[in-house]
Design goal:
The complex is a heterodimer. By secondary structure, chain A is an alpha/beta fold. Chain A has helices spanning 26-40, 59-62, 75-85, 97-103, 105-114, 159-166, 179-191, 205-209, 217-227, 260-272, and strands spanning 47-51, 66-69, 90-96, 119-124, 170-175, 196-201, 228-230, 247-254. Classes of the chains: A alpha/beta, B alpha/beta.
Chain lengths: 281, 384
Amino acid sequence: MSVENPAERYLRSDRMPHIWCPGCGIGTTVNCFTRAIDESGIPMDRLAVVSGIGCTGRVAGYMHVDSFHTTHGRAIPFATGLKLAAPDMKVVVYSGDGDLFAIGGNHFIHAARRNLDMTVICVNNLTYGMTGGQLTPTTPEEAIASTSPYGNFEHPFNLPYLAESCGAVYVARWTTYHVTQMKKAMKEALLKKGFSFVEVISPCPTLYGRRNRLGDSLDEMKTYKTRSVIKNGADTKEVDLGMTGSIVVGKFVDRERATYQDAMEAFYSRKLGNRYVRASQ
Amino acid sequence: MHADPAGVLTGAHFIDGDHACCEGALAGGCRFVAGYPITPSTEVVERIALRFPEVGGVFIQMEDELASSIAIAGAVWGGKRAMTVTSGPGFSLMMEHIGFAIMTETPCVFVNVQRGGPSTGLPTLPAQADMMQARWGSHGDYELIAVCPNSPQECFDLTIKAFNLAEQYRVPVLVMMDECVGHMMERVIIPKPEEIEIFPRRWTNAPLDEYLPFEPGEDLVPDMARAGQGYRFHMTGLTHDEKGYPDMTVTGQARLLGRLIDKIKKNAAALTDVVEDQVDGAEAVVISYGITSRVAQKAVQAVRAKGRRVGSLRLRTAWPFPEHLIRDLATKVKVFIVPELNFGQMVREVERCAQGARVVSVPHAGGTVHDPAIIVQAITEALR
């Protein structure tokens, strides 16, 4: 008797094995994501996954839905065009910290400001994995990276605070240790109307963990377990991450605001009356 | 297929090239525009912003040109005909997504109302100095299509044509305007919708489980799906196979690039769009495009008045370059004269194809158009 893995129907099994290293957390997030889709009830044909470039940028290519592997940093503006052209699609941007917040940072803040109806999932492994472990905007102070060989002296982004300040209506953070909570947050984000953001702190044992003597992936799981503090509704100003100290996780923001498309349609209807023609699918 | 009447302002108008380009896009079926303000192209998107809510279009002013140039790709895969509009500095930022559109065979239109450069250069003044950037600006090898209108009427006509060619060949098509044609006001005739031919998207009708998104047809162009139809397709800017899956091998690269280049190159003759004037029997032929073609015309007339046999060849399609035409002409004329608002860009193509014939470049730094007397002098000296 064979039992199907519930994740399998959401994945392109003809593309396995995937490219990720042993111990990488991206696969764990994808596993949770497939279960979140399943529980959300969103039909697979109504779901599009858009990725940028990098290790997490490969997620789109493994998802058995309409999937788009775009350019470095530009998954969000691609998703913007896709969502505005095909409003009946649920559009998910799935990418990494370097892609979304260094080269793509400008697009993240504007998409959140506009409250575009999309979900952004950031696998934050604190480094550029694909290119060999360089510094990203989320690398903690003191951390060693290939381009900060003496340690990082730059101040990193606090992603939930950034997302909330820019206007995201749903903001949550979990680690790859918190698979149940992560799945639930992804499901809530998928079902939330507007710009929803889920940050997942994830290990990169090959390039970040080894350089910073964090042990193997199992050691990192133990670290996440000990360092994590669940604080739903925490003030996002206070959830920044360091090399040591607590990792505050939880659902931080869940609020309502008109989406870009709803605001646009209501506005033009009011200003133009019968002259306004809604875009057809 | 003909134009959707909702987007067509049939009648005679007195408008500038930027506004005419907007009307061309509307008539050509464009219903998604992403843009970022930049002189001298802004009037195109300003008119789009005004017109779109009444015709079911979506305009979004993005945060920069990188965003605009990939938002249109997203919209195309969502089912729309889409365009972005810019000038020099913005065009530089868009290069990566011209390459992305080529690699992913995303039919879309980029309008560049050229101004003086490099860098911020001359924001309000004309140049034609992005012609080689249009051809080679994105990294990697590729072929694309670029058209060069020389009047507001052609800004209308060639923008429609750009949308049609983009759909037919699944490539980005560049509308290479310049500040002069963008801002000059002239009579523009917009035909009836039923007189405007539209090349529709090449939608696939393959069964859901048999569709290969990058399997080409006989003309080397694959049929397209859009998000939400149930095909669950994948696309990537990586070198890929017919399924759209990464195939980063020597043979995969050769197969994909060979096809992307051949689908344009093998149709170069069909894509040739030139206006010839007294080329047969000419001793010299002036080759020009865009605003410079109108100045050149005056110069050609002046030299003809002195009894010399001078022909004129105007490029409406700059890329692919009409190589076969110039090679053929080179066996019949003594000299080609190539005036352009740059230090010699398209003239390099003419030199490449001229074989025995002489080629004279008439460069100009930009900021204004040539004094026709300079072109007259160049033709006269060339014929001496």
